[in-house]
Amino acid sequence: MSTRQESGAMNALTIRLQDEMFALEATNVREILDPVPITRVPNAGDFVGGLINVRGSVVPLADLRVSFGMDRPPPDADTRIVVMEIDLDGEPLVAGILADKVYEVTDIAAASIEEAPRVGMRWPAEFVRGIGRRDDDFVIIPDMNRIIRAESDRNSALAANERTDR
């Protein structure tokens, strides 16, 4: 599934996590929700610590701030849940993504998107697909597949360690 338009722009939903602007592929966004009740999952990691009900379907709720080592303040009036469909190794995965604020859907010119530098960043470079420019601001484009896969691998390893510790 491509988000590149004829002009080469990335059609993106811009969100805020802490004090940074991120861009999610708009074509993967199903809907944006106000905060809903979260069912906590016992022994789940911080990244996907709960499940939400989205129109009768059980959907995992992910917090990208965990992957990027950010503080996790309590929800406020701007907090939203972005429900996305992520292509994970050819399989569609529907997940909710917590956002401190949702801004708008916009195009980010392909020419303004650069590879993430390997040094000097405060975020894990492997989780950043690119950094775009929008007006005078930098916009981080997360690599959702890598983030989900890494967090899934981390949780599998933790579960395996817990089984061997018993």
Topology readout:
Elements: E1 10-17, E2 20-25, E3 29-33, E4 39-40, E5 50-54, E6 57-62, H1 64-67, E7 80-88, E8 91-99, E9 101-108, E10 128-134, E11 137-142, H2 144-165
Parallel strand pairs: 6-8
Antiparallel strand pairs: 1-2, 1-9, 3-7, 4-5, 5-6, 7-8, 10-11
**Helicity, as a percent range:** 10-25%
Please work out how many helical segments DSSP would assign.
2
Strand content: 35-45%
Distance between the termini: 43 Å
Structural class: alpha+beta
Number of strands: 11
Summed over residues and divided by their number, the pLDDT gives a mean of 85
Radius of gyration, rounded?
16 Å
Oligomerization state: single chain
Element order: H for helix, E for strand: EEEEEEHEEEEEH
What kind of sheet is the major sheet?
A: 6 strands, mixed
Give the spatial strand order of the biggest sheet.
3-7-8-6-5-4
Features:
alpha+beta, 2 helices, globular, three-stranded antiparallel β-sheet
Task: Give an account of the 3D structure.
The chain has 166 residues and is of the alpha+beta class. Helices cover 16% and strands 43% of the residues. It has helices at residues 64-67, 144-165; strands at residues 10-17, 20-25, 29-33, 39-40, 50-54, 57-62, 80-88, 91-99, 101-108, 128-134, 137-142. The strands form 3 sheets. It has a 6-stranded mixed sheet with strand order 3-7-8-6-5-4. A 3-stranded antiparallel sheet has the order 2-1-9, with no helix packed on it. Strands 10-11 form a two-stranded antiparallel sheet. A hairpin with a 2-residue loop joins strand 1 and strand 2. It is globular, with a radius of gyration of 16 Å. The N and C termini lie far apart (43 Å).
